[in-house]
Amino acid sequence: MGADPTLLAVKDLEVAYGKIKVVWGVSFHVDPGETVALIGPNGAGKTTILRTIAGLLKPAAGSIAFEQREVGGIPTHEAAGRGLVLVPEGREIFPAMSVYENLLLGGRRERSKAPETLEWVYSVFPVLAERRRQTAVTLSGGEQQMLVIARALMGHPRLLMLDEPATGLAPLVVERIFEVIRTLGAEGATTLLVEQNVHLALEFSDRAYVLERGKVVLEGESVRLADHPLVRETYLGV
To answer: What does pTM read for this prediction?
Structure first.
């Protein structure tokens, strides 16, 4: 028998804030090189799941296996050290530092590769190369979003988790960021995406899971889910 190809396996995950349970027995998996989307309405538990995988929250029940090793409940720094990198919603930059300095912080775990990775990141986000000496606070909202994604990529994540990368951005910027997500996928990167724009999430992912009230209600290939009556009526307005 060959090795298990699954990179991330979440099984029967339950997460609560105090006594209020928000994730109820969720199971899904991500294979190497895939872009997998979690979609659904606000309050469905999508961000909570990402935060739990990243070590920011502890599961109440269930398991999270990354590369066949249990990671549920491990500290955030340990999760990051294993290659589980979350880019949270809200564009958390170091505003007084330059773009270049922000990027170097992202590459501190892979210092030996930093110069080479930096050149690659600049090729993916040319605007960051142009603005590399500017302080991060002077960037537009879209450029700041590019910066936080680029900073995450500097650490060579095994699994890149993106939480609502399109929120509050102009359409042209959103298009650019999702083209980068597609490029990363073509280069073999593995991405777990939470995105409120269901049309975009399905267009730029391989597979998707639909969550409602903390439970998975649909799953499958993104192109097929885009034609599912529930998805078309509830999320795509068709």
So the answer is: 0.91
